[in-house]
């Protein structure tokens, strides 16, 4: 493991050399500023590297990752990233990307006590409860797990739409689409759940904010 650690620093030097070989001004250009068109909200899982799976270069994607790609309204970290992305960077798209085989989602289906993470996982259990008729009707456990992953992404997209940050951007006529995707660990492919929202028209009335 010590070797692996040192190798990371060596890899970095190689990467810099590769980039400079293609464009000697590569880092000067990046250092001048960022204007990414996309905010990515994904899972912390090491197998779902945001930029890599969508072929995006440094500077193209603003990234927030947490366990099970959650949008939790009291999460200052997520809210700060969202506020900066929408109001300062003025991203055009926010993508919530879950993934099949997500350990956070799997844990939420079970009853094991782990530790402080139980409190994070509880938010995912709430998504199960909201959809328990549909999920409990799925007999095959793997199928139920996969569907739960999709329903969780759907709920997080809805939670994004409920935020004052996103609603205010829409109210101001800012071009902003929010989208739900699921990545397949076993084939590398992304499934677009086709639940994109460009305004708050599909939001239940009680969540609509007047500005
Ligand atoms: Co995950």
What are the key terms here?
9 helices, five-stranded mixed sheet, single chain, Beta-carbonic Anhydrase, Chain A, 211 residues, binds cobalt (II) ion, 5 strands, alpha/beta
Structure description:
This protein has 211 residues and is of the alpha/beta class. Helices cover 47% and strands 14% of the residues. The chain has helices at 2-22, 26-31, 50-53, 76-88, 103-108, 117-130, 132-136, 141-162, 164-171, and strands at residues 38-43, 61-66, 93-99, 177-183, 190-192. The model has no long low-confidence stretch (mean pLDDT 97). Bound molecules: cobalt (II) ion. Cobalt (II) ion is lined by residues 43, 45, 68, 99, 102-104.
* Spatial gap, N to C terminus: 54 Å
Supply the number of helical segments.
9
The succession of helices and strands, N to C, reads HHEHEHEHHHHHEE
Detail the poorly predicted runs: none
Largest sheet: 5 strands, mixed
Give the second-level CATH assignment, the architecture of the largest domain: 3-Layer(aba) Sandwich
What portion of residues belong to β-strands? 5-15%
The CATH superfamily title of the largest domain: Carbonic anhydrase
* Approximate shape: globular
State Rg: 19 Å
What number is the mean pLDDT?
A: 97
The helix content, as a percent range, equals 40-55%
Q: Quick one: how many beta strands?
A: 5
Unique bound compounds: cobalt (II) ion
* Integer tally of domains: 2
The CATH class of the largest domain is identified as Alpha Beta
Overall SS class: alpha/beta
């Amino acid at each position: 493991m010590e070797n692996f650690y040192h190798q990371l620093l060596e890899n970095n030097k190689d990467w810099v050399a590769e980039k400079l070989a293609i464009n000697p001004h590569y880092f000067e250009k990046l250092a001048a500023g960022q204007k990414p068109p996309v905010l990515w909200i994904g899972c912390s899982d090491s197998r779902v590297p945001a930029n890599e799976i969508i072929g995006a270069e440094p500077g193209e994607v603003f990234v927030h990752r947490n366990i099970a790609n959650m949008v939790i309204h009291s999460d200052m970290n997520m809210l700060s990233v969202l506020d900066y992305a929408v109001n300062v960077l003025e991203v055009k798209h926010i993508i919530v990307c879950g993934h099949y085989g997500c350990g956070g989602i799997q844990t939420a289906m079970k009853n094991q006590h782990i530790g402080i993470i139980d409190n994070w996982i509880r938010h995912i259990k709430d998504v199960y409860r909201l959809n328990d008729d549909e999920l409990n009707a799925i007999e095959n456990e793997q199928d139920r797990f996969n569907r739960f992953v999709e329903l969780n992404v759907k709920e997080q997209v809805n939670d994004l739409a409920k935020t004052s940050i996103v609603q205010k951007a829409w109210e101001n006529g800012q071009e902003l689409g929010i989208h739900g995707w699921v990545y397949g660990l076993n084939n590398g492919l992304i499934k677009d759940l086709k639940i994109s929202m460009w305004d708050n028209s599909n939001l239940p009335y009680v969540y609509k904010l007047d500005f």
